[in-house]
Amino acid sequence: MKITVKHLFIVIIIAFLAIPSEAWSQKKAEMIKTRWAEKSMEVNGLLSDWKDSLDLYNEDTKLFYSISNDHENIYFAIKNSSKENLTKILARGISFTVNFENSKKVAPTVTFPILDRTPGKKQVETEQPEAKEIQRRIISKIKEIKVEGFKELVDGGISLYNTYGINAAMAFDEKNDMIQEIAIPLRLLGIESGSTELITYRIRINGFQGSASIQQRDRNDYEDMYGGAYGDRFNRRSGRNYDGMYGAMPRRNYPNTNTTNSTEFFIKSELAAKQK
Predict the structure, then answer these.
(1) CA 43 → CA 161, 213, 264, distances in Å?
(2) Phi-psi region of 222 (alpha: psi -120 to 50; beta: other; left: phi over 0)
(3) Residue 137: which H helix or E strand, with range?
(4) Is beta strand 56-58 parallel, antiparallel or unpaired with respect to 156-159?
(5) Cα–Cα distance, 40 to 274 (Å, whole number)
(6) What is the pTM of this model?
(7) Local confidence band at 112 (pLDDT 50, 70, 90 cut-offs)
(8) Which is nearest to 22 in space by CA: 139, 101, 125?
(9) Which residues, 6 or more positions from 155, have their beta carbon under 8 angstroms from its beta carbon?
(10) Cis peptide before 119, with omega less than 30 degrees from 0?
(11) What is the pLDDT of residue 78?
(12) What single-letter DSSP state applies at residue 133?
């Protein structure tokens, strides 16, 4: 059979699409140093176990972060002070992916926070709620953690109070910055304690995804849950100060912003070892 240029082009496209999507570990990743967790870390959305300091920063995502481990878990901590980021994080969460460098296996991923999007009873309020009350309502909507690619787990949502050892928590500090902590057992990641193999991490802030109509539907749903209570209605009187903040989405006729786009970065490190 004669192979035409058209046939060759189709073969190339099919071959390209067949490349595993999880080959992301081939992308450039910054080398960092993982901390050793001197004591069992409490995952509560506070930074007390991190000495109130996250010493790493990524310019693309505007996130401060740090990673540590002990013999049982890998711990992530991040701090976000970007209002634009907060809208995306509350809508679709942050995905943490862990894999050995250059591995072609499907990489385990944890996405958090996952907010309950079930419409509730709309609140009739005559005054703009205080920031702490808005934050309390947001945190009360977090019911589960999303997992993908774990050999021992079914892809999908698991309870915050699961028995697998995956823990996650979110809180806001005194500056209204969002703090997030996650702990993932090494055994679920297929990593042996004391391993010196290089590990690659992807940290991704998920934007609104899918077709334009799906994105608009999700924006509308998100606005109905949060914007109506303490975003859109009060923004008309306060110069839109709360647009994109504490979960309040821009009104539906508002131009699209970077909330649609996902942002991510890659880092790599060996597990930290306990000092003798």
Answers:
(1) 12, 37, 23
(2) alpha
(3) helix 131-140
(4) unpaired
(5) 13
(6) 0.77
(7) very high
(8) 101
(9) 147, 148, 149
(10) no
(11) 97
(12) H
